Amino acid sequence: MKKLSILILALVVVLAACGPKPTPTATPAAATEAPANTMDALIQAARQEGMLTTIALPHDWCNYGEAIETFKAKYGIQVNELNPDAGSADEIEAIKANKDNKGPQAPDVIDVGFGYGPQIVEEKLVMPYKVSTWDTIPNEVKHPDGYWYGDYYGVLAFEVNKAIVQNVLQDWNDLLKPEYKGMVALAGDPRASAQAQMSIMAAALARSGSVDDIMAGLQFFKELNDAGNFVPVIAKQATLAKGETPIVIRWDYLALADKDALAGNPEVEVVVPKSGVVAGVYIQAISAYAPHPNAAKLWMEFLYSDEGQLIWLKGGCHPIRYNDLAARGVIPAEIAAKLPPAEAYARAVFPSIDQINKAKQIISEKWMEIVGAEVK
Amino acid sequence: MKRNLRLGLLWSWFWMILGWLYFLLPLLATFLFSLRAKKDTLSFLAYERVFKDPNFWKTFAFSLEIGLITILAGLVLIVPTAYWIRLRLPRLRMVTEFVSMLPFVVPAIVLVFGLIRVFSGAPFYLTNTYLGTNALLVAAYIVLALPYLYRAIDTGLAAIDVRALTEAAQSLGAGWPVILLRIILPNLRVAMISAAFLTLATVMGEFTIASFLVGIKAFGPYMSLVGQNKTYESSSLAIISFALTWAFMGFIQLFSRGRAEAAPPGAH
Amino acid sequence: MRRLNNLFPFTKQGAHSARPVSSIPWRDALWVLPFFLFIFLFVFLPSASLLSGSFQDKWGNFTLQNYLDLFKPSILSAYWISIRISLASALGGGLLGFMMAYGITVGGLPRRLRTALLTFSGVASNFAGVPLAFAFMATLGRTGLITVLIQTLFGINLYERGFSIYSFWGLTFTYIYFQFPLMILIITPALDGLRREWREAAQILGASSWEYWRRVALPVLTPSILGAMILLFGNAFGAYATALSLTGGFINLITILIGSQIKGDVLQNLGLSYALAMGMVVVMAIMISIYYLLRRYSERWLKI
Fold first, then answer.
1. What tens digit of pLDDT does each residue of B210-253 get?
2. Is residue A245 within 8 Å of residue A185, measured between CB atoms?
3. Which residues in chain A are contacts of C265 at CB distance < 8 A?
4. C-alpha distance from residue A279 to each of A318, A345, A353, A368, B243 (Å)
5. Which helix (H) or strand (E) holds C132?
6. Quick one: angle between helices B231-255 and C130-140, nearest 10?
7. d(CA C85, CA C253)
8. Which residues contact residue C4 at a Cβ distance below 8 angstroms, ignoring those fewer than 6 apart?
9. Could you give the ipTM of this predicted complex?
10. Which of A339, B68, A365, B74 is nearest to C269 (CA)?
11. Across-strand partners of A250?
12. Chain B neighbours, 3+ Cβ pairs < 8 A
């Protein structure tokens, strides 16, 4: 007992003495101050702050891993990554909880679902900032005053484990075929995940020609479940590779990232369905209570520069300035080749915020009742 | 008599084997999957990748340190309290038991955001320094481990006659510190070790609170990060963390054997 | 010191106490202040938002609607499923854990096994969430180790016969994985406390093994067993990550409901989730009261 206590005491002393000290942050600029005008002044100010706190950025989601490393190396700013698994609601809650906190738990920047735009402005959680490439961001996906702005988009696709599924499917109706018994899964809980909800919207689109007829989408999943093809589990890369969920309905960029990560072990094919192609946009914003507002602004400048946008493209995401980049011919051929063919995107439907929120409402109320994919 | 003994042993072995099968089969399945990192062959590639990752060692060490401090602080808080309530304050038992169960019903995410709200601003300002943040983390983990800590210690106390021991020691002239440290604690050795194990395991695997307080510096968030896009590594990581934590607990067990280690009191 | 203990077997608290039992001695209560202060600072204060938030609607106005919503059939059924799975895994885990703990204490299995089991239980008791769910999927899923084994050895396809790991019982069996090591760790000290002399005395008086257990050992152990069971119940009741990973959000557990309200990408009703959590507090309070009554009854003739 005594020996144990001494050992533990020693560890405590060591921990207290050797913990790295935080870089002292300068007094954070208030949200109402004028932003640094030139890039150099911004870089200076950001360097002085010394740290950027991000949240909910998995390293293989749109190649954020490379974005973070490049940013760190380029500007010499430390990046503090909070919860990479957080959902949009977590990010917003994190801003609210850290209002009085200038420490490293307060997120500087957030990346949330499209539907959250109105809420974060209404609740005054974000500060406006227009990046230098502002004009090349399409109007439908940015707030006119610069409170939030779309960052990337992708379409819902089928991620298929070819080692298990010999006959790769091409469209929504194929999912109902008996040969795919016990194989199809969503990548989230429809009551909580934007990805799953938009999957249902896509099914609705395929069935009824419109994303407004959500009941058609729910009906589709009911049939899927009744046929025994639906697996009631949240699919991940691991469940796909293991063979528990060989067909997953996912964002195409996530499916492409899985394909790269698995590197043929097993073979993965990413199929954009022939009908019912729904595109989803995510948006970026700077927290109104950010402890490091200049670092945050610099991060945004970086992400929306050609360099940053191409990093996202490498991750399989379509950066929001894609059309501008393509028009100017700055997209390297190898990267363009990895993406699904452009025709698939030509038929993509981009639901509006209202359509998304309406769908959420209906799905969260009716999912259990109609689909009954309930584990009893 | 002998027949009884043999039947008894058979019974014990039956359950022991059943239990170990239950333990090991899922681990075996995970292990076999983790060996498939290289296409079409079995290899330890996933394990190599994990061991070569400096973040693995850093985050494991960090969470281990936090875990040890949590054990120490938790025991210091709980043991005297549980003892005193048993001895002198039986009326408070129900309240204490209820309170010790509360961490089960407070969702971790509510707890972490609540802690940040309360302690990041005035008058505590805990989150502005690494020491403060780590202290907050330890406090949060004591809360999470509280049900297990309390139950383990309380069960240990139930198994010894607290009142008699105390009265005997008092009649021999011992003061309270001596009674606690030299009479009660040694009798609680097994219970405290159980409590230590439970706490350490809780801390090593914990994700939500660590992810919002310290981000990917802690082991739980690191495991989640790996698990998101590296399938085989996440399986090998699960096995490795299991094995390492087990080894460390064995180490604690060995280390705390200390002096007189006869069979535990009354064991058959 | 242990010898001394043997001189005072079944002392009754009342007989030796000169203290009036009808009030809380406040000077003594002072010594447990640090504990309660800790609880206040680190449990109550952070969760205060739970209580206040449960009375608020989406726009921050006072409302009782959240509590009224708790009585919707879908939510009541969610509480019921959560309680059922907690009871099932507590009983299953409690039984298995007790038997294994018995083996390494009274049952006379080798000493090395005891160390191995206790340390392993330490780790296994917290092996939960994503890795555990995946481990069970890898064992009993459609392509799982055991499933495939049974298929190859006996030609029986479990899934065609209606079995699925993605079910209530699948989740229960997964929960049991971390329940029974918890039981082992908690109950072992209690089993250690069974005095050898009692068994010998019982044998001298002609009791069979079964009678010894029924009339001496189990009654002595019952309070501790009850205590362990309520812990197991709470452990399962509050579990979230494992259920989320194994059955997705497709099972109606209270923790999943709360999680989907708080965490998801959906703009939901935070007030309702807080009310759900308060409902959990009520359920735990009821279970603890039942436990407490049972325990007092079982302790009535024992020293405390």
1. 988 888 899 988 988 888 778 888 899 999 988 988 888 888 88
2. yes
3. 87-89, 112-113, 115-116, 188, 192-195, 197
4. 10, 8, 12, 25, 44
5. helix C130-140
6. 110
7. 9
8. B164, B165, B168
9. 0.86
10. A365
11. A157
12. A, C
C135: CB partners within 8 A, 6+ apart:
B26, B27, B29, B30, B238, C127
Beta bridge partners of A161: A268
* Adjacent-strand bridge partners of A285: A110
Residue C263: is its pLDDT beyond 80? no
At position A80, the amino acid (one-letter code) is: N
Contact call for A189 and C250, based on CB within 8 A? yes
Cβ separation of A113 and C143 shorter than 8 Å?
Answer: no
Cα pseudo-dihedral B110, B111, B117, B119, rounded to 10: 180
Residues of B in contact with C146 (CB under 8 A): 25, 29
- Kindly list the distances between the CA atom of residue C205 and the CA atoms of A210, B133, C194, C200, C208, in Å, as whole numbers in the listed order: 83, 61, 18, 9, 9
Q: Sort out which chain C residues have CB atoms less than 8 A from B188's CB and list them.
A: 189
Over the stretch A113-169, which tens digit does the pLDDT of each residue have?
Answer: 888 889 899 989 999 999 999 998 888 889 999 999 999 999 999 999 999 988 888
On whether any CB of chain C is under 8 Å from the CB of B202, the answer is yes
Structure tokens at B89: 């304050």
Report the predicted TM-score, pTM, of the whole model to 2 decimal places: 0.84
- Contact list in B for residue C304 (CB cut-off 8 A) is 86, 90, 163
Distance (Å, whole) CA C243 – CA C256: 8
Residue of chain B with shortest Cα separation from A240: B231
Tokens of C216: 């001496």
For B37, nearest residue in chain A (alpha carbons):
A265
Q: Which two tokens stand for residue C200?
A: 């010998």
- What is residue C129's predicted lDDT score, i.e. its pLDDT? 84
Task: Identify residue B146 by its one-letter amino acid code.
Answer: L
Q: Which two tokens stand for residue A249?
A: 């309905």
- What is the distance between the alpha carbons of residues B191 and B197, in angstroms, rounded to a whole number? 10
Question: Which stretches within chain A are classed as H helix?
Answer: 2-18, 39-49, 64-75, 88-97, 117-122, 194-208, 214-226, 237-242, 252-262, 293-304, 306-314, 322-327, 333-338, 342-346, 353-371
User: For all residues of chain C together, what is the average pLDDT?
Assistant: 83
**Pair C67, C273: CB distance under 8 Å:** no
Structure token digits, residue A245? 């969920």
* Alpha-carbon gap, residue A182 to C143, rounded angstroms: 11
- Reading the block at residue A86, the tokens are 């957080």
